[in-house]
Write a structure and sequence with these properties.
Elements: E1 5-12, H1 15-27, E2 33-46, E3 49-63, H2 67-77, E4 86-89, H3 95-103, H4 116-122
Antiparallel strand pairs: 1-3, 1-4, 2-3
Length: 123
Amino acid sequence: MPTQYDLCLVTVGDDATAEKISAGLLKERLAACVSAVPGLRSAYWWKDRIERSEEVLLLIKTRRALREDIVQFVKRHHPYSVPETVFLEMAAASQDYLDWLGANTLFTTNVPRGSARDRRKKI
């Protein structure tokens, strides 16, 4: 089965957080590339009211096998209590790009088998 890849979307509140999360994902080889798109205006429900904020959108290019690693990394390093971590499957991309992406990310997950939710139930 060919390696599968994802694009992960994460919003953050400022450039410093964007840099911190981007650098950490790259250093740990959880992502081959992180693009930060500033100037995002978000409107969302939070604690029974509509909030509006300026955010930075992170576009994280990664292996599908690393999804849970990325979710856990973002939870540990993100200031939001409920950070956005949305994965979109890459249906197609140039083979050269996919080869590069694969060569610059971890081959397999570091998170033990079974989700974090499953492990909490056993404790």
